[in-house]
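Sample 1 of the test manifest.
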Amino acid sequence: MALTASPPAEPAEAAGVTKSPAPQAATDAAGLGRARASVFVAPALALIAAFLVFPALWTLYLGITNYRLTGVAALRPRVVGLDNYARALGDPEFLNSLWLTLLFVIGSAVIGQCVLGFVLAWTLRAVPRTVRTVVELLVMLAWILPSSVVAFLWIALLDRDGGTLNVLLNTPGMAWLIEYPMLSVIIFNAWRGTAFSMLLFSAALNGIPPSQLETARMVGASGWQQLRDVVLPHVRGHILTNLLLISLWTFNDFSPFLITAGGPNGRSETLPVFVYNTAIPGGQLGFGSAVSLLMLLINLVLAVVYLRLLKQRRA
Amino acid sequence: MADIVLEQLVKEYPGGVRAVDGLDVTIEDGEFFALLGPSGCGKTTLLRSIAGLETVSGGSIRIGGRDVTRLAPGARDIAMVFQDYALFPHMTVRDNIAYPLKIKKVGKQERAEKAEETAEGLSLGGLLERRPGQLSGGQQQRAALARAVACHPQVFLFDEPLSNLDARLRLEARTFLKRLQRDLGVTTVFVTHDQAEALAMSDRMAVMEAGRIRQIGTPREVFQRPASTFVAGFIGSTPMNLLDATIDRDTVRVAGTSVPLPESARAHVRDGEEVVYAARPEYMTFSTEAADAGIEGTVAIIENMGVGSLVSLEVGATIVQVTVPEGQEPPIGSRGWAVAAPQRVLVYRRDDGELVGSERAPALAEA
């Protein structure tokens, strides 16, 4: 600790041996001292406060008012307490959205991205290098393209008239986005986000000592037994971390809106889409804010559950 | 019972590299067999081929008369201990040891008993509930051994079993491994790059270079009569003196000195042939006075080896090394003569490095 001291800003101290060194100057590695360090951090803090903390608090406030985009309540919002929350919990549309979001997370994140990502990472270990590179490139492509672009691609793929899928399957006039809106966005999101899980699991699988897999092979363990006894215990932590990240991302994902806009008739209206539809086109900013806060709470619960699981393993 | 017979074994990697190049080896039942060689010589590939972890490109492997060349590793009845021990970190020592039995569908009760019994035999008794991470290096090694022993295989394979231990523990583990192998009487093949380890532990050893076996024999045979200059240079804790020399009738001209031509080589060389004169430093004596058939030089370097020292004599541009007993080290820069024990001198051909007069001399065979 003492070695990190001798701040350049205090030349007097170097000469004056009798003066005891300033105690707070020695506490940080860069030797800046608290005051100057604060100055450096201040712009970032200000930006965070203006664009993150304030809107969040503002949303909190809006959530207990009847604020609307138009009309009397827009001019003079009235504090209604927890009415918005009570209304949300009794609102069949909200509950429907909650249910659809759950389907979306389980279908596209847990089963789609996580399982598919693991399967891809696992099978790609054994294939020739060139095949692996091509598959990885394709999967990555889906991940790095902007949402608006991939959304357009999927609309083109699933379009009723002249959509690519209808041509391929020879089912002219099939309206996939109307017949199976939820399934469509689930598959879309699985396709879009698998790259992350695949990359994460590839790295995790590379970390397994080959000798452990070979030991299992030597005693005659089948592929499934090797997976259960060697591979999964090794990558358990990675699976949980991955699940935490992708469930939160998927839960808050807004790109389904770009494909179905929540329709038809709310059948693919996940919570972020519901909030948007309620607050902006619907104009009920107060109610939308309350639902946003509920989403935040659900996110927190998810995070806590996963972190608990992770901790359990380490103990 | 369970001998291992390798016939014309070839392992060729894509790109044409032959890691194992047409080997014929028979490892007897119950033998402790060492595969020794520098890194990249194919010894580990050979071991992994026997294990079934590598698919061989040609030839056959038979274990106890059964052709296992195309069998999966798990069907060969072999246990392998890896260099890093490969204990499963998430299982207790007990579960690790019992793991092969679990895969073989042995009942839970029997499995636990078996694991306990094996662990007891390897003095792991009190450690059964621990995780591998909580064991010392030596304990981890014994746990890995216990896992191999518990399933009663026909053959053990050890890949560099001692290289992850510190120097002191390594010597203990050497003795321990040798006793364990003798008690169990299971045919064992182990890979090492440490010639001292191979000499100390094995019943017989094979010295490998570039995918081929350069010599097979007991440690004594390999130490006393290396079959080629490669083996001669590889075996022994002090490097063997390999000096360019020329045959001159019944003598060898080496470093400006005429020394007697060894009996065993006499019938196999021509006058004037270029050869390599080889003598171990331990088989040479140092003298401060002119000695008959002694190679004269200047004392350049003295290396202390504990009991005795290794003296390097500069003879023109070549170096001759000779060991001297404790307390008899000559001063640096003094003149000295190195005399080889005639029985221990070997002569190699200069062109291919093969031993001249390869049949074993009777005097040495019984030594």
